[in-house]
Design brief:
Number of strands of chain B: 12
Distance between the termini of chain B: 66 Å
Largest sheet of chain B: 7 strands, mixed
Radius of gyration of chain B: 20 Å
Largest sheet of chain A: 6 strands, mixed
Oligomer: heterodimer
Structural class of chain A: alpha/beta
CATH superfamily of the largest domain in chain B: Bacterial phosphonate metabolism protein PhnH
Number of helices of chain A: 11
Mean pLDDT of chain A: 88
């Protein structure tokens, strides 16, 4: 479960099996025993998670299963109750990120974590220009040259396939798909180590959804960025994720390779989820 | 029945109108504000016989720092004779027995609204600025408790985002008066609505600047010889108002901050905004004795400290 590396004992007469390349590397992200309560509601209970460099992991589950809460906690947006969180990035290796002070949490969030929300208004300033939204990331990281900001914003927007002639339009004037592209450009502008996607294509119509998924796939291929994607849409997960975790009532009920989980679900809830697909 | 017979005699009030406890509190807050340049210190703003928003913040600071050996100058938009300035000056003089002047060089305490005098202030002088809104982040963060968190984190990215947006939309920085400054490399500060022209005067200044907002109950300070930098990009610079070609219709002065007066036939004439300085120029033109101090901007429009206003 949860992609624990299982190294088989080599037998003398047997060809030695190595675990997959991803698993042989040290995990980029290591989350242990994450729990979070809101009053008497248990949102997340004992979630463990590893992300290896360059892989994409999906979290599926019904509404209220705690998958978005996990993402918010990983983005250090709120305090957790229990759990440790390690990210193997320069300057923060070996530190429990939940225990960092505000200042360092903010530094880490700016430099190393990019997030795309389901609702664009959570991640964007709807009245500022699209280019400004992306540039803000760089300003936060200390960039104070206008020409550099302008160039970096248009580069990031171009790599999320945002039309160049609309760079000075505010997100309030853009379509849903375009708004998600601005969010994506903002998230990847500083080349973070970790990309968090919270239902990035939910609420978009099917053709636009396919285009946004294409962009995400291309980015994954080009940048080898470690991604955690939360969705209730199994199609999105099958397209993007290498591994998948199934969450229910705040706990992980099943995990493994995407094809294995979606084609041969073992847990009754996962079976139900897969067969409920239209 | 005269007003004097209805009012309390002056000895019924404590020195400087405020009670001793209020003055002690204000002085302690000022010391804290001077110790943390640019940081907004809350204080208990007292009731005064003028309405909130008419300079009560500056008035309380002035009343708690003046003594009978001081000389006071009060200006409003550069003018010594506007109603607000005249009333404040008379009130402070009556309550403290302080001497008053319109000459910047003679004054030890200068209370001002919207201007810094044209003549350079020197060590030992105190400039008290009346502040309507002390929060420079108000435009980008309406929630003041959240704004205080942003000050604590030095999270000022949104201000530069505002500058970026202005450059994209209008091609220049649009903020006129009250241009936000970074004090001592740490706190973002609203310098009260002084024009951009006066903002560089606060940088590495010899005098002490105290800024106080009576309605918002906050005061802050720029100690002498402290860095005060307007927010700008490394490749697009802060600029002061362009006063080139504007000549004072009374004194013939140039490259000083001018008031614009529309004329009946169309067009406009210009007049020095700093009336105390203008009066001295006129006295000198008549041949009377008048000591003119060095000004922040010379007659060619160069600021006295090179490199503060950066050129493209």
């Amino acid at each position: 479960m949860n992609g624990e590396p299982v190294t088989p004992q080599p037998q003398p007469h047997q060809r030695r099996l190595l675990p997959p390349r991803l698993v042989r590397q040290a995990p980029l992200l290591e989350l242990r025993g994450l729990s979070k309560r809101y009053g008497r509601i248990v949102a997340v209970q004992g979630v463990n998670l590893e992300l290896y460099p360059g892989e994409t992991v999906g979290i599926v589950g019904e509404s209220g299963s705690g998958k978005s809460t996990v993402l918010r906690l990983l983005n250090l947006e709120e305090a957790t109750d229990t759990g440790t969180y390690h990210l193997a990035v320069p300057g923060f290796t070996g530190q429990n990120l939940f225990a960092l002070d505000r200042f360092h949490q903010r530094q880490l969030r700016i430099q190393q974590i990019g997030i795309v929300y389901q609702q664009p208004h959570m991640g964007l300033r709807m009245q500022a220009t699209s280019g400004g939204n992306v540039a803000e990331r760089l300003i936060m990281a200390g960039e104070r040259r206008f020409a550099t900001l302008r160039r970096a914003a248009s580069e990031a927007l171009a790599s999320s396939e945002f039309p160049a002639d609309r760079i000075d339009d505010p997100p309030a004037m853009l379509s849903g798909g375009m708004q998600q592209r601005v969010q994506l450009a903002k998230a990847i502008a500083l080349r973070p180590a970790l990309l968090l996607l919270d239902e990035p294509t939910t609420g978009l119509d099917v053709s636009i959804q396919a285009l946004v998924l294409d962009t995400l796939l291309r980015l994954r291929r080009e940048r080898q960025i470690t991604t955690l994607i939360v969705s209730h849409d199994l199609g999105v997960i099958r397209t993007l994720a290498d591994r998948v975790l199934v969450m229910r009532h705040g706990a992980v009920v099943e995990g493994g390779l995407t094809d294995q989980i979606l084609d041969d679900p073992q847990h009754p809830y996962t079976q139900q989820l897969v067969s409920a697909r239209l | 029945m005269s007003l004097a017979s209805l009012a309390h005699p002056r000895q019924d009030f404590s020195y400087g109108f405020l009670d001793a406890f209020a003055k002690r509190e204000l002085r302690r807050r000022m010391l804290k504000a001077i110790a943390i340049p640019g940081f907004q210190v809350p204080y208990a703003s007292r009731e005064l016989p003028i309405a909130r928003g008419w300079g009560t913040g500056g008035l309380q600071v002035t009343l708690s720092i003046v003594s009978p050996v001081d000389t006071l100058k009060v200006i409003d938009q550069g003018a010594d004779d506007s109603v607000n300035a005249a009333n404040l000056r008379r009130f402070i003089a009556r309550m403290t027995g302080v001497a008053t002047t319109t000459d910047t060089l003679d004054a030890t305490v200068i209370q001002s609204r919207h201007r810094v005098p044209e003549e350079r202030l020197r060590e030992g002088q105190v400039l008290v600025l009346q502040v309507p809104d002390p929060e420079p982040l108000r435009q980008v963060q309406p929630d003041s408790s959240r704004a205080r968190e942003m000050h604590a984190d030095a999270d000022y990215a949104q201000m530069w985002l505002t500058l970026y947006e202005q450059l994209v939309r209008f091609g220049r920085f649009m903020q006129g008066a009250s241009y936000p400054v970074l004090v001592h490399g740490r706190y973002l500060m609203s310098p009260s609505p002084i024009p951009r022209w006066d903002t560089p005067a606060l940088h590495q200044a010899a005098h002490l600047t105290l800024l106080s907002a009576g309605r918002e109950k906050r005061l802050y300070a720029v100690p002498p010889y402290t860095d005060v930098r307007p927010i700008e990009f490394e490749d697009v610079f802060f600029q002061v108002e362009n006063m080139a070609g504007r000549i004072c219709m009374l004194t013939g002065a140039r490259n000083k901050f001018m008031d614009e007066l529309p004329v009946a036939e169309g067009g406009s004439q210009f007049r020095l905004s700093d009336t105390g300085y203008a009066a001295k120029l006129l006295r000198r033109a008549r041949g009377d004795a008048a000591t003119l101090g060095a000004t922040y901007f010379d007659d060619e429009g160069h600021f006295y400290q090179p490199g503060v206003i950066r050129e493209e």
